[in-house]
Design a protein that fits this description.
Blueprint (H helix, E strand, L loop, with lengths): L9 H4 L8 H7 L6 H17 L8 H8 L3 H4 L1 H13 L3 H8 L1 H21 L3 H15 L2 H12 L5 H29 L4 H4 L1 H15 L11 H4 L3 H20 L9 H23 L13 H30 L5 H6 L2 H17 L5 H22 L6 H12 L1 H14 L7 H40 L6 H18 L1 H43 L18
Helix pairs in contact: 3-10, 3-11, 3-13, 6-9, 6-15, 7-8, 7-23, 8-9, 8-10, 8-13, 10-11, 10-23, 11-19, 11-22, 15-16, 17-22, 17-23, 17-25, 19-21, 19-22, 20-21, 20-22, 20-25, 23-25, 24-25
């Protein structure tokens, strides 16, 4: 009988390396440089992109004149950018999984910067529109990826402060865009509103490549390119393109009385239904719509859509009122917004700090309550005698609620969500914010017109011959104007002056009505905010973050 060999195999004698737990590895990951340096770096790129959504607004007449186009045709400079931007915004998660988040972010910077140069040298409107589409596509990945990078670079208890910096980008850039664009166009050339992106883009490229790294749970998977969801992309492009064209051209074409607008409304509905049904069934979708199964995230998206709408409507309504009815030029109207920007810089860090001490639900309720107050204040002070100082103070008041809503909702959107979905979360939360902005700008502008017409009809009823007040006012004006322009002309000029006053008063009341309607919408949002789960301030992802 042979002896039993009791020797151990050679490899068994070696000490076994301790098993690595991927979850622990993910939890232990930290960026190799200060998170604040990373935040400022990615915020720089995002600021450049957000600024471009509004900086070209006041330059359209100059662009039209320079390129031999009509002013109506020149509005496609804005629309083309917004369409391509809206299509790419929700694709950030898919693109990051394909090529890595940092690589995708750097790629977007390069595309945006190169397209900015091409826009600046464009010799014709068709070429400018093509370059703006490319620029919008490059810019579409910058906002969500900047937010996702910030979310993963900071500890949960510091995330609110990081989102305060991002909030400054998202709120301040659209506010100063028209002012900066008007100043550049008046003093240099409209082409410089695009050329100014080039040094910023180069600096952002250098800083991002040196400072930003992907966390271990972001792994490029280039096989996704071979299995590209072309049908989902087609539905998304159709829906977003149709929606943006419908909103941008709706008022110009009298909305749904136009076959053109009805066609694009149908394409939008068809594209959205097709997108939702198709993406829901995909194993590796372009947009992970199943994240909306998380009740908290779904509510955050809806609230953020309305916050984005309120923010953009606010940014448009006040400069529009001061230019149309108070006679401000674009630069002065923009300067009236400056004090609001300063207030925002002061309040944003406070709101960011508050997210680590107070639940997102409580802060959101506070923010929407402040919205109710500020909109009612705006309705009270908006009049034809409003001074520049009053307009500046109104902007300060309007800015105060935004940090509390913006930061708390953004922060709450990540609570309880898997880390691996941070790119999708960022893409969707920015996507709905931009959609809300586009929708509410169109709706509030249309509503101002509708309410002004209603007030005009009712004011006219009081301005008929036989009305004592009307007759006295007309006679006094006729006598005054007759002394300067002749008695024969005094009566006609008096009627024209009274009618002009009537139009201005009706339009002012239209703005007042819209502010009141926004205040009632904010009341409804307070009730909706109570549906948010009450998170533990500073808690990270996972079920334990909420109670």
């Amino acid at each position: 009988m042979s002896a039993i060999d009791t020797t151990m195999p050679a490899d068994a004698a070696r000490p076994t390396a301790p098993a690595v737990n991927p979850a622990e590895d993910h939890a232990a990951w930290k960026p190799r440089v200060s998170p604040w340096l990373i935040a400022m770096t990615v915020a720089l790129a995002a600021f450049m992109e957000v600024l471009d959504t509004t900086i070209a607004n006041v330059a359209l007449p100059h662009i039209a004149g320079s390129l031999g186009a009509s002013e109506d045709q020149s509005t496609w400079v804005l629309t083309s950018y917004l369409v391509s931007n809206a299509i790419v915004l929700p694709l950030g998660g898919w693109a990051s999984n394909l090529m890595g988040r940092r690589n995708f972010f750097v790629f977007c910077i390069l595309v945006f910067t190169a397209a900015s140069f091409l826009c600046g040298i464009a010799p014709s409107l068709p070429l400018l529109l093509i370059f703006r589409v490319v620029q919008g596509a490059g810019g579409g990945g910058l906002q969500p990826m900047a937010q996702a990078i910030m979310a993963d670079s900071f500890e949960p208890q510091q995330r609110g402060q990081a989102f305060a910096l991002y909030g400054l980008v998202a709120v301040l850039a659209p506010s100063i865009g028209p002012t900066l664009g008007g100043w550049i166009t008046d003093n240099f050339s409209w082409r410089w509103i695009f050329f100014m992106n080039i040094p910023v883009g180069i600096l952002a490229f250098i800083l991002v490549t040196r400072m930003v790294d992907d966390p271990p749970w972001i792994k490029p998977d280039r096989s996704r390119l071979r299995h590209m969801d072309y049908l989902g992309l087609s539905f998304l492009a159709l829906a977003m393109g149709a929606m943006q064209i419908m909103l941008d051209k709706g008022e110009e074409n009298d909305w749904f009385s136009s076959d053109f607008i009805r066609l694009f409304a149908f394409l939008f509905v068809f594209g959205m239904i097709g997108l939702v049904i198709w993406e829901w069934r995909q194993k590796n979708p372009l947009i992970n719509l199943k994240l909306f199964r998380f009740k908290n995230f779904a509510i955050c998206c809806f609230l953020m859509m309305l916050v984005g709408g309120v923010l953009n409507a606010n940014t448009v309504l006040q400069p529009q009122f001061t230019q149309e009815l108070l006679g401000y030029n674009a630069t002065t109207a923009g300067l009236a917004l400056t004090a609001g920007g300063i207030a925002l810089v002061l309040v944003m860090p406070l709101a960011g700090w508050a997210t680590s001490k107070i639940s997102a639900r409580t802060l959101t309720v506070v923010g929407f309550t402040l919205f109710v107050i500020t909109f009612r204040y705006a309705a009270a002070v908006t009049n034809l005698q409003m001074s520049f100082a009053e307009a500046s103070w109104l902007r300060v008041v309007q800015m105060l609620p935004i940090p509390f809503c913006f930061i708390s909702i953004t922060n709450a959107a990540y609570v309880g969500m898997p880390k691996e979905e941070s790119n999708q979360v960022a893409g969707l939360i920015n996507f709905v914010r931009n959609i809300g902005g586009s929708i509410l700008i169109a709706v509030t502008n249309a509503q101002v017109t509708t309410r002004a017409m209603w007030h005009e009809q009712h004011l006219q009823q009081a301005m008929q011959p036989g009305s004592i007040a009307f007759d006295q006012h007309r006679q006094a004006l006729s006598a005054f104007l007759g002394g300067s322009f002749g008695a024969a002309n005094g009566g006609g000029l008096a009627l024209a002056s009274i009618y002009n006053q009537l139009i201005q008063q009706a339009q002012t009341q239209g703005y007042q009505d819209v502010y009141m309607e926004l205040s009632w919408m904010s009341v409804a949002l307070i009730a909706l905010a109570f549906l948010l789960s009450k998170n533990r301030p500073g808690a990270g992802p996972g079920p334990g973050a909420m109670h």
